[in-house]
Automatic annotation (TrEMBL):
GO terms for cellular component: cytosol. CDD domains: TMPK. GO terms for biological process: dTDP biosynthetic process; dTTP biosynthetic process; dUDP biosynthetic process. This is Thymidylate kinase-like domain-containing protein. Transmembrane segments: none annotated. Pfam families: Thymidylate_kin (PF02223). Residues 12-204 form the Thymidylate kinase-like domain. InterPro entries: P-loop_NTPase (IPR027417), Thymidylate_kin-like_dom (IPR039430). It comes from the Bacteria. Keywords: ATP-binding, Nucleotide-binding. Belongs to the thymidylate kinase family. The keyword Nucleotide-binding applies. GO terms for molecular function: ATP binding; dTMP kinase activity. It comes from Candidatus Roizmanbacteria bacterium RIFCSPLOWO2_01_FULL_44_13.
Length: 232
């Protein structure tokens, strides 16, 4: 039986094709089977949020290519989407529940920060984005980020096998189809793991093949137990 610490916020993140949705759902189901209060968020909220629907337009390329749109402007819809459920998240955490999110502000830091080649400009942007998300919008701060590491080439192969995503309306995802963006965002994620103590990298590949989902899930469980977020 799992025992839950009070009001914890767990984020599952990773590059495109890394299995974030699968692992988030497995973890949520583990909590539910143990009768622990848990709430699942899937960001961006493409179907239920005004701002999430705007993100979908961006990913469909309606505002231009991945390089055309300023990372400052692109970040706004993602951030506003999260801010729209801020109160809901705060209330659930205050009652001692655990939130498990598939992506969060962490994804914005990686994918938009990856667009900067100049390190000084990148740092300036990351500070701006952190202030926007956590100080202006005051969204809840995550306790731990589980970063699912899948090399971008393997992630691209896995993406190609996925079913079409309805929010794309048959169009390609401008982030997923840009090899340059995949490479840069992977490097940015690894930089964030190295710089942030509450980020933990989970290697999801062995011998250039994705590990079984159950093996990856157990790795995540072991990390959460070791960090004190779960206990038997």
């Amino acid at each position: 039986m799992l025992k839950q610490p009070k009001g914890k916020f767990i984020v599952i993140d990773g590059g495109d094709g890394s299995g974030k949705t699968t692992q988030t759902r497995l973890l949520v189901n583990k909590f539910k089977k143990s009768s622990l209060p848990v709430k699942y968020y899937d960001f961006p909220q493409y179907y239920s949020s005004f701002h999430g629907k705007t993100v979908a337009k961006f990913l469909r390329g309606e505002f231009g290519s991945i390089k055309d749109v300023s990372p400052y402007l692109a970040s706004l819809s993602y951030a506003l989407d999260r801010a729209s459920v801020k109160k809901e998240m705060e209330d659930f955490l205050a009652r001692g529940g655990t939130i498990i999110a598939n992506r969060y502000a962490t994804s914005n830091l990686a994918h938009q920060g990856a667009k900067f080649k100049n390190l000084a400009r990148r740092e300036e942007f990351l500070k701006w984005l952190y202030e926007l998300e956590y100080k202006i919008h005051k969204i809840p701060k995550e306790n731990i980020v589980i970063y699912l590491y899948v090399p971008w080439r393997i992630g691209a192969e896995l993406n190609a096998r996925e079913e079409d995503k309805k929010y794309l309306k048959g169009k390609p995802d401008i982030a997923e189809t840009s090899q340059d963006h995949r490479i840069r965002s992977e490097k940015m994620y690894l930089t964030l793991v190295a710089k942030n103590r509450h980020w933990v990298k989970v290697n999801c590949v062995k011998d250039n093949k994705i590990l079984p989902k159950e093996v990856i899930h157990q790795k995540i469980m072991d990390i959460l137990k070791k960090k004190g977020y779960l206990a038997l």
